[in-house]
Amino acid sequence: MGWLSKIFKTSDHKISEGHYHNNHSNYKDDADSYTPSTSGDVWPKSEDEDIDRAIALSLVEENQKGNGVNDYKSQLEEDEQLARAIEQSLIVESPPRPRYGNENMHQPVPLYFPMGYRVCAGCNTEIGYGRYLNCLNTFWHPECFRCRACNLPISDYEFSTSGNYPYHKSCYKESYHPKCDVCKHFIPTNHAGLIEYRAHPFWIQKYCPTHEHDNTPRCCSCERMEPREAGYIGLNDGRKLCLECLDSAIMDTNECQPLYADIQKFYESLNMKLDQQVPLLLVERQALNEAREGEKNGHYHMPETRGLCLSEEQTISSISRRPRLGTGNRAIDMRTQPYKLTRRCDVTAILILFGLPRLLTGSILAHEMMHAWLRLRGYQTLSQDVEEGICQVLAHMWLESELSSASGSNLLSASSSSASYASRKGKSPAFERKLGEFFMHQIESDISPVYGDGFRAGQIAVRKYGLQKTLNHIWMTGTFPF
After folding, report:
1. Domains of the chain, earliest start first
2. pTM summary value
3. LIM zinc-binding domain spans which residues (predicted)?
């Protein structure tokens, strides 16, 4: 049996190395490592012939010595020893590998198969005695070890895995490494080697942390950051509006009148009709801020006020003609005219910021109309959280009624104002519904003690006692019922 020593000496094994990538919102580029083992030809064809010749010579020698044939049990033991020796010569041990950061080390587990029963994990056929790979705890033909993404063989020194599937490192990065929704580049890793990004809590827009400080504009309506390849519309007062929000934006006072009529009907359905006709004006940001400073009473939502219920006599610059789009995505040719407010009752006008989508404009208008209703009905001066809270409840109720009264396919035809828009513009009902859900989310998740806590206290009271009983309790006590 001395010929076995030659087999061990000539057995040739090559080792290559790979990396595993994990997939989390914050994770390292290389989380786990695998080492695929590559055997060369197990032994050359000439050595196969040497083995056969040696076996034959051994049998001839034994016959010539006259020892006869060994008994069956003894022969079986020798055959098993031979098979074990050859099998041990095929086991590929992996050498020590370098560490990559704080990764977990995974050594391939040797798998033992009867002779001739290595099955390729790629094609499910027997491998036999040719070249093979031993990685991911199984065997492969070299040509069957393919990338899950591009389906090309993996011959690189390093590779990545997801689950039990191998990938080229570049294919894995393209498939699983998050890209910035603003600059479209791969989000870089931080000093700790983790992928760190920011995400909008509602839209789940992912972006590099640097964009929060590099003057990347946000849409004044939906708050999404402006992608590099899609320019937002620049309004005259410095705000930016994305193209989806622009699709349903209300740009001038006349255009807002059908929506105003719809919300008046909504109040009537709640048995809360306004007895006086209150003027509604759409204005620019500067005009709204100037009117706010001239108002003695009122609470204002920061960082920006988008609506105002006036009680003082003022002259307001109202938008009388919507702007058109010019070069560079700028709104141009907008016409304004002065509007003198006279005091005929406790409310002189409602002002709304122009250029906001219909559902956002409507929710602001529903909020400001509640201020008007409280003043016209003679409610005492209320604390900020109670007055702003009940106004936010009405804004939320109007949005909820708009979304619940129409399915995604006919949302835009649920009211007369929507129908007028639908006939004039090509709308995206699915996005408008999503936009309405976002505005409701803004009201519900507001963290301010006045608008946020006030809304949540008011909503609990209305759900428990109903709107009318809640309003009666506010009339008598100035507080929400508990």
Report:
1. 4-175 (2.10.110.10), 243-477 (no CATH)
2. 0.63
3. 118-178
